[in-house]
Amino acid sequence: MSKNELLEGKRVLVVDDEPDVLETLDELLPMCHVVKASTFQEAEGLLETQPFDLAIFDIMGVSGYELLELANRNKVISIMLTAHALSVENTIKSYNKGAASYLPKDEMSEIKVYLTDILEAKEKGENFWWRWMDRLGSIYDKKFGPDWKEKDKSFWNNFPSW
User: Fold this and answer.
1) Fold for domain 3-157?
2) Tens digit of pLDDT for each residue in 57-70?
3) 53 and 13 in contact (C-beta within 8 Å)?
4) Residue 56 parent element (H or E)
5) pTM, full prediction
6) In the β-sheet with 101-104, what is the strand arrangement from edge to edge?
7) Contact 114/134 with Cβ under 8 angstroms?
8) How far is CA 90 from the centre of its chain?
9) Predicted confidence (pLDDT) per residue in 88-106, tens digit
């Protein structure tokens, strides 16, 4: 099944306080029904009243972690997308709080790949993060140095992979 086929018709909530990010994600996901929100309150109302297959939350500016908790209660698969909050600590926090992935905004152009990975994992009964290290490990090596996993070694030693 192609990336577009797995994503075809999925309802995706995108929440970010930057209008250009909302527009870019909408353009990158033409096969999906994208619903956009620019505030926490707007997103909260949508999550409480409409069904979604996936949600993409910015961390800063829209209280992304609070939205993640609400999405988890409503069984919406959620992805954290960030620029300013990109850190190893927030990656671990996103994983522990139940996000399906944590992506740098620099990788936004590849959103179809990441969402497809998540939907494939769901189909196969795999952990949503099964391909995360293969896709983003080298980016973290560049940004945080080759020993970025050392501080949280036990977490990373048990991290899912394929």
Assistant:
1) Rossmann fold (3.40.50)
2) 999 889 999 999 99
3) no
4) strand 54-58
5) 0.94
6) 33-37, 11-15, 54-58, 77-82, 101-104
7) no
8) 12
9) 999 999 999 999 999 999 9
